[in-house]
Amino acid sequence: MTMKRKLDQNDEPSSPARADEGDRALEQKEASQPGQSHSKTEPSFAELGLDPRLVQAVAKQAFEKPTLVQRKAIPLALQGQDVLCKAKTGSGKTAAYVLPLLSGILKRKSTDPSTFTAGLILVPTRELADQVFKAIEQFSAFCAKDIQATKLTENVSDAVLRSLLSIVPDIIVSTPARAWQCINSAGLSLDKLQYLVLDEADLVLSYGYDEDMENISKALPKGVQTIMMSATLSAELDTLKGIFCRNPKLLDLNEEIGAEDEKLSQFYVKCAEDDKWLLGYLIFKLQLIKGKSLIFVADIDRSYRLKLFFEQFGIRSCILNSELPINSRIKVIEEFNKGIYDIIIASDEKNEAFGDDAGAEDQEAMLNDSKRKSDDAGNKEGAQPKKKRKTVKRDQEYGVSRGIDFRNLAAVINFDLPTSATSYQHRIGRTARAGRTGMALSFVIPKELHGKHKPTWIKSTENDEKVLGKIIRQQGKLGRTVEPYNFSKKEMEAFRYRMNDALRAVTRVAIREARTKELKQELLRSETLKRYFEENPAELSHLRHDGELGRTTRQQAHLKHVPDYLLPKDGKKALTRNVGFVPFKKEDKKRGHKRGKPSGRSFKVGGRKRDPLKTFKVRRK
């Protein structure tokens, strides 16, 4: 593929050196005028040189103006330049590479009608592949007849994959493992490939795709333009740059967009292990946080324990983990973005299994060892010693802490603190996106309290205070603050007995049965009924993923309602000493009561008619 050069004032190709000088001069000019209005210097999408049909699709998506990463990356990509871009999550990286890729294919098709696969987009997880594929469909809405895109992440046979590739799609979205599988089986030809995109490139090697990426690099033709997008610059990124790029243009844009970080509020709470559960109950039952929340826990069992715990209080939630089928996971994310669900409990398994400094081989070994131990523990628990339980294969291409766009997410709750500051950064990047405000709240277990509450403690919390120190230093370098948030322990104690009752009901047997039950339900929905729901899409809306799983647990109806006498004298506000991020429910003046108030009977101590102590009568014999 020939490199396209930038034209000068005389419409003649300029040398690369002169083009670079022009870019630097423009950057210096923008930097020298900090007080000038951005509207005069920032170009629109139409001025970036994109195909008019793409500009029309962008306008339909209500994008007002290009973000910084789009303004910098799109012109370079349209010139044929290899691009290595580091930008924070939520900055618009997907559109920054999808739009120039589509524009290049449309321009080529206007002169060369031959069909071949022109673009290959590699992502580390199946959830991200689905998101990228939908972005391609949205941006190609006005040129759908000219763009054929295929996603290769479904669990199908090689014959079905060859059938999908027989149409010779213009763009393929895949994980590296599935892409190499198709190349190796002669179903995918890269002989005429023009564009290669690596999204979340720093994660590709961390997910164990080393051998797949090496094989793909050998199958690529010469002159392929490479675009690499990442949230961090790491050793893995340097390795990929050396394999796939030719003198790429490096865009390190994090420090230039720090002004938007003020919309993200970060807090932490130091508490005992059992206090985590008490605070979780209070926050969501009393609706101290308004809006949709994403809760991160350390492992799969932990996610089911928290879901069953919430069910004791009538709090509905969904679960995301690597055991669930990909179709179910994608549907949960879609319906969460539509506002059907308010709480998702996600197990961030890969980030908990290893730290930042572990190599890909060590990470895979640790994951396999962790899986083997958990399976062995499951065999011993609640079963005969000689009887082995069937193990469920976990999806190694699962991940929700990176890249996934959870829309209008109000809060990220680190119920279990991650084991590294980098993982923390990726988690909180799910909120405060696209100019919206957001909040991150993390529970931290002090060293002296680690392991004190045996029923709920986990090993990863042993170093919470050290990780918190790294997080505070990392966020400080980015100009952000992580502040302590104080809950009134005195006012919380009135609810502790309810928390203990709920925890006692969530036994290990109940967790195992709930985990098996949901997996069976989701497999049925994902495979057996897939064709039926394709023909009857309206029926799919009746299948909810936040239903109760705790039918085998001890039912305690009284826990689902919060009587008024448990609340502090000053109401919910007294539970917190500072109310910086807590958007309490406003009073509905028309109805004369507070919205979101728990249903059910309640009474006020001291009232004449509602006080059961004053209406209780004793009959004499």
Automatic annotation (TrEMBL):
Helicase ATP-binding domain residues: 74-251
Q: Does the keyword ATP-binding apply?
A: yes
Q: Some GO term, biological process aspect, for this entry: which one?
A: gene expression
Top EC group = hydrolase
Q: A Pfam family name for this chain?
A: Helicase_C
Q: Where is the composition biased (Basic and acidic residues)?
A: 18-30, 369-379
State where it is primarily located.
nucleus
* Limits of the Helicase C-terminal domain: 263-493
Q: Where is this region: Disordered?
A: 1-44, 367-396, 581-621
Q: Which GO terms describe its cellular component?
A: cytosol; nucleus
Q: Which GO terms describe its molecular function?
A: ATP binding; hydrolase activity; RNA binding; RNA helicase activity
Sorted UniProt keywords: ATP-binding, Helicase, Hydrolase, Nucleotide-binding, Nucleus, Ribosome biogenesis, RNA-binding
| Documented EC number(s) | 3.6.4.13
Give the residue interval(s) assigned to the motif Q motif: 43-71
| DEAD-box RNA helicase Q domain mapped to chain residues | 43-71
The record's subcellular locations are: Nucleus
Q: Which reaction does it catalyse?
A: ATP + H2O = ADP + phosphate + H(+)
Q: Which family does it belong to?
A: Belongs to the DEAD box helicase family. DDX56/DBP9 subfamily.
What job does this protein perform?
ATP-binding RNA helicase involved in the biogenesis of 60S ribosomal subunits and is required for the normal formation of 25S and 5.8S rRNAs.
Q: PANTHER family recorded for this chain?
A: ATP-DEPENDENT RNA HELICASE RHLE-RELATED (PTHR47959), DEAD-BOX HELICASE 56 (PTHR47959:SF21)
Name listed for the protein in its UniProt record: RNA helicase
Which organism is this protein's natural source?
Answer: Echria macrotheca
